[in-house]
Structure formats: structure tokens, C-alpha cells
Amino acid sequence: MKQHPEICPRCESNGPEALSHSPVEGAWTVFHCPTCFFTWRSTEPDFITDPKKYNPNFKFSPADMANFGVMPAIPELKTKG
Ligand SMILES: [Zn+2]
Question: Domain of life, per the record (predicted)?
């Protein structure tokens, strides 16, 4: 079984947490990043679990999160008259 990760594969923040454990002890663990909310299972391929191999096009820093758009976009309020 893989060790508890030091950093999040996506945003590289410290402190991923164990979110869930397999019913059969030691088969897998689901980890969760409290910073960017990325969630991954320990048995996923290394391009998901390893920060060095995670697709750089999908990575971001926690500072970038302040500039994320709202999805779906909220339309302007309609006004009468
Ligand atoms: Zn993260």
C-alpha cells in the first residue's frame, strides 16, 4: 500500500487527508486535499497520484483559486422596464 502523500498532486499544498479506507484493510485509501478539494484513490495511476507526473495543464497554485470563474456563470439580474 502506498504511503500517506506529503503534498496534493494537483496544487502541491501540504496536508492531504485520508478521506476513506477500503473495506478490506490496506487495499486502498482515498485522499483529499483540503485546499483545492482534489480527491484521489491511492491505487490510481501515478499520473494522478504523483505530483511530478500529474498533467501540468491541470495543475494550479492555491493563489490561482481566487481568480477562478464561477461555473456555471450567473447571469445578470433582469430588471423591469
Ligand atoms: Zn490540492
Answer: Bacteria
